[in-house]
Amino acid sequence: MNNQIFFFNEEINFVPRKKKLIRLWLLNAIKHEGKHAGDLNFIFCNDDYLYKLNNKYLKHRTLTDIITFPHEDNVDRISGDIFISIERVRENAKKFHQLTEKELKRVMIHGVLHLIGFKDSTPDEKLLMRKKEDFYLSIDIR
């Protein structure tokens, strides 16, 4: 079955650079975690759009950089919609003294890791998630 990684935008004009390399990087990460990729949709949006989703579906009244919605319950195959606020990514890049491109990749792999099954609710889960993010960010995708 063919897997696809798609990039869309809502209420913002944004297209990631090096889409082909990002796709390969994400597919390699999924494979490294012992999973198979289904269809993954990355939807880049603004704060307001993501805030409304956060409030409507998760009942959270806060800004966030990412929300992930899985498509299926198959433990070996991951599919889903990953909504990313480009405004939050840019703000966090400044806050953490990172390049915007690197912060975007961190958020993208974070969403994929959620679909794979990793959580970040507890301190231990957050630590593992950060280690996984750092590992995949260390893989150069020029």
Short structural description:
With 142 residues, the chain is an alpha/beta fold.
Write the layout of secondary structure elements.
Layout lengths: L3 E7 L8 H14 L3 E10 L1 H12 L7 E5 L6 E9 H10 L4 H17 L6 H15 L5
Describe this protein with a few key phrases:
single chain, 142 residues, alpha/beta, 22% strand
The ordered string of helix (H) and strand (E) elements is: EHEHEEHHH
CATH homology group: Metalloproteases ("zincins"), catalytic domain
Q: Could you tell me the CATH topology label.
A: Collagenase (Catalytic Domain)
Contiguous runs where pLDDT drops below 50 for at least 5 residues: none
Q: Give the overall average pLDDT.
A: 94
Tell me the radius of gyration.
Answer: 14 Å
- Shape, principal axes of CA atoms: globular
- Major sheet description: 4 strands, mixed
Note the total helix count: 5
Strand order of the largest sheet: 1-2-4-3
Query: What is the terminal separation in angstroms?
Result: 28 Å
State the CATH class. Answer: Alpha Beta
Number of domains: 1
How is this structure best described in words?
A four-stranded mixed sheet has the order 1-2-4-3, sandwiched between helices. 28% of the residues are buried. The two termini are 28 Å apart. It has 142 residues and is of the alpha/beta class. The protein has five helices and four strands. It has helices spanning 19-32, 47-58, 86-95, 100-116, 123-137, and strands at residues 4-10, 36-45, 66-70, 77-85. The radius of gyration is 14 Å and the shape is globular. Helix 1 runs parallel beside helix 4 (100-116), helix 3 (86-95) packs across helix 4 (100-116) and helix 4 packs across helix 5 (123-137). It has one domain (4-137): Metalloproteases ("zincins"), catalytic domain (Collagenase (Catalytic Domain)), CATH 3.40.390.30.
